Q: What sequence folds into this?
């Protein structure tokens, strides 16, 4: 039988007018780890399927009323990415061929081998999950509110950053996003694009240091006889995100200045690209030592955003760790590790030279370690970076550590119990009044967890 651990949340809708056939297929699917959903006819199936249906369809071809081929046609009209497996009668070769021509994922012929059907269903569900994941990613990359929610944190620097993103996104001038490695500069650039009037237009990211000068010039502006459309034309009125801009040859920098000058002189600047520059060093340093032309520097740095390093974000580190741990635990099919007081203190005291990316890596290692230890997480210091690189942060008072750990425990309990206060009170052994007072102290609202 097939291991369906990779697709536990996806459904298999079984459409067949014969009750015995529906029941037998459903029984085999359930034994194989699937979640069967039974429908007696095509009309019932259509009423429960939209473009984001979380699963696949297995349908008989010969049914009264709307037959299987018509059902396939209507499902394809709703969502061409929905896998539909057809069950044909013995000798119905023509119908099977027609179903494949219309876009069916595959077919089985009666009497069929149940193992073949479950194998097809397993592969179809994997394809469906990939389709849904890609759609979600595309929505996130075009939805500013979703991207802002991915900038997790309640610390003052993060609150200020989200406000600045919303403000800067409405402006039409170029922006420099400065921050340390792993701090989230690319996410900020995409949020700037998605929160403003250029949403829905192209977003193209280009690393200027990853190409030879001639190749970079061809990528930017094209070359005679080349079939490739230059990046400047591809991005149009969208956003061009540049990294390592100081590594560009000065001749190419001069051409870029000319382009920006013509853009600024145009009556409709929205038809020309907005440039967001990502940098780990102040661009002023690159300009002062001659690597970046002064005229290009002043045009690119009309506005500047600073992404705060993780060590300056206080309790955000606990929120981020918990989120990453839950994500990796779901991916690996285990429970997320529970932080102890010493674990929380370690996270809060660490310097995090690799910032959010380093914390994400640590969370994955912690989940894997907890899985090997039957869910009990060992000291996080054992799976972190060397102590001389992660514990150089400024010391924090004991009260801060206690408050941060207490807030994290209440948040975790609220999330686990989906805002059910009686369950939270029982888990934390707190009376209702005390819990209410602590939630008010830490700015927690039950409604956020319902």
A:
């Amino acid at each position: 039988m097939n291991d369906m651990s990779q697709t536990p949340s996806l459904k298999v809708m079984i459409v067949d007018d014969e009750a015995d056939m529906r029941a037998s297929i459903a029984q085999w699917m359930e034994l194989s780890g699937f979640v069967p959903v039974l429908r007696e006819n095509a009309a019932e199936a259509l009423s429960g399927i939209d473009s984001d249906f979380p699963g696949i369809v297995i349908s008989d071809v010969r049914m009264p009323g709307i037959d299987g081929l018509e059902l396939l046609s209507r499902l394809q009209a709703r969502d061409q990415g929905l896998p539909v497996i057809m069950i044909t009668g013995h000798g119905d070769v023509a119908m099977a061929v027609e179903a494949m021509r219309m876009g069916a994922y595959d077919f089985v012929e009666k009497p069929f081998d149940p193992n073949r059907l479950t194998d097809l269903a397993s592969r179809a569900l994997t394809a469906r999950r990939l389709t849904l994941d890609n759609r979600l990613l595309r929505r996130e990359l075009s939805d500013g509110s979703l991207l802002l929610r991915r900038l997790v944190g309640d610390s003052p620097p993060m609150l200020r950053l989200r406000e600045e993103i919303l403000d800067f996104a409405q402006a039409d001038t170029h922006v420099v996003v400065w921050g340390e490695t792993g701090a989230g500069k690319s996410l900020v650039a995409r949020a700037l694009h998605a929160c403003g009037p250029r949403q829905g237009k192209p977003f193209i990211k280009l690393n200027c240091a990853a190409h030879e000068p001639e190749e970079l010039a061809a990528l930017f502006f094209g070359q005679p006889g080349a079939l490739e459309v230059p990046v400047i034309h591809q991005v149009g009125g969208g956003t061009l995100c540049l990294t390592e801009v100081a590594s560009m040859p000065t001749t190419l920098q001069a051409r870029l200045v000319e382009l920006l000058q013509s853009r600024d002189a145009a009556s409709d600047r929205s038809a020309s690209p907005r440039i967001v520059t990502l940098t780990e060093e102040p661009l002023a340093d690159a300009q002062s030592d001659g690597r970046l032309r002064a005229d290009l520097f002043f045009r690119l740095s009309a506005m500047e955003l600073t992404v705060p390093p993780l060590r300056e974000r206080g309790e955000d580190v606990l929120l981020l760790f918990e989120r990453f741990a839950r994500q990796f635990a779901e991916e690996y099919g285990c429970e997320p590790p529970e932080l102890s007081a010493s674990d929380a203190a370690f996270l809060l005291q660490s310097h995090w030279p690799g910032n959010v990316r380093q914390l994400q890596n640590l969370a994955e290692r912690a989940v894997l370690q907890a899985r090997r230890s039957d869910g009990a997480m060992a000291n996080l210091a054992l799976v972190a970076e060397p102590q001389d690189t992660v514990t150089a942060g400024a010391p924090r008072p004991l009260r801060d550590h206690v408050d941060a750990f207490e807030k994290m425990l209440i948040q975790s309990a609220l999330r686990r119990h989906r805002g059910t206060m009686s369950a939270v009170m029982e888990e934390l052994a707190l009376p209702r009044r005390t819990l209410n007072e602590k939630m008010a102290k830490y700015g927690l609202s039950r409604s956020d967890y319902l």
About this structure: The mean pLDDT is 83.
